[in-house]
Amino acid sequence: MITGHGDDIYRYEGIRINFSSNIYAHADITPLVEHLRGEMGKICNYPEPEALTLEAKIAAKKGIDAECVIVTNGATDAIYLAAEACRNLGISHHHIIQPTFSEYEDACRNAGLLIQGDADEDTDAVWICNPNNPTGEAIDASGMLLLAREYNALIIDQSYEDITLCQMMTARQTVDAGNIIQIHSMTKTCAIPGIRLGYIVTSRCFAKAIRKCMRPWSVNALAISAGHFILENDFKAIRNIEDYISEAQRLRNALDEIEGISAMPTDTNFMLCELDEGTAAELKDWLAKNHGILIRDASNFRTLTPHHFRVAAQSKEENNILINAIRQWTSIPHS
């Protein structure tokens, strides 16, 4: 695990607007909170050793067999389980499409897998985040299916699937492909990072190998209850995704128009930017101290530089504050 993930608000005082986390900060999770208040008695008993009831409910909603769904302690748990399962199946040569979330590399190293800088004829498996963190780029389902045909395994992290208008690969397509491990995050969908809840969709063969790597009681009772509530109520953090993505595009365009800033195209709510002068660390500290704004220094993503930073769109008013603050930054001479 790298140091310097987003949302390190604990390092600063007086932060009033947080652009550093990809999770939408204005989600109304009151219905879920009220539900969990009534579920507190469940902490006096062990949860299911495996969250089979929740798996069955997810499977029914997705139109697939329950054996092909594995509920996990967040998407990160799913990432490490996928790597362990690949090792046990003899799928040993892995390529990770960069820049991306650091935990794929950590999971592969912990499992003793060989990580290749470039994909070649020896490559068994490819890891991809879709939409990708930190770039925001997305590949549609047809593109992912073409990629899957080239390797023994394709591990797709779809944690941001509900924060894009791009057509994501469905659970049915994943199961039918046979060689795809698809990772999902209720944390991102519902803006509940404190409740670690994710799940895997995959073929029966991969599911069997993954289950052998699982630890009992890895998903707690409140998380399982939250999952049932989310599915039964079609609960999502962002109700009007079209408007939110439109606002994210406006923010990207406005940042890209600032002299000295390059904001890269994005298909989701967050975007990767690059400074012509100064470093992301300097900009981050300046924004925090002078404007109470927190951004993500993206320099510790593999293949990126000290000039890269990432922001996630918030409200229109907050986005305008960020735009004006960065304009002010670019007017200051930097070495």
Topology as a string of helices (H) and strands (E): EHHEHEHEEHEHEHEHHHEEHEEEH
Q: Indicate the radius of gyration in whole angstroms.
A: 20 Å
Figure out the total of helices: 12
Largest sheet: 7 strands, mixed
The chain-level structural class is: alpha/beta
In helices, the fraction of residues equals: 25-40%
Looking across the biggest beta sheet, what order are the strands in?
2-8-7-6-5-3-4
Mean pLDDT: 95
C-alpha geometry: globular
Structural account:
The protein is α/β, with parallel strands linked by helices. It contains twelve helices and 13 strands. It has helices spanning 30-37, 52-62, 74-88, 103-110, 141-148, 171-177, 186-190, 204-211, 221-232, 241-256, 280-291, 316-330, and strands at residues 17-18, 69-72, 93-96, 114-116, 125-129, 153-157, 180-185, 198-202, 261-263, 270-275, 293-294, 296-297, 308-312. Helix 6 links the parallel strand 6 and strand 7. It is globular. 43% of the residues are buried.
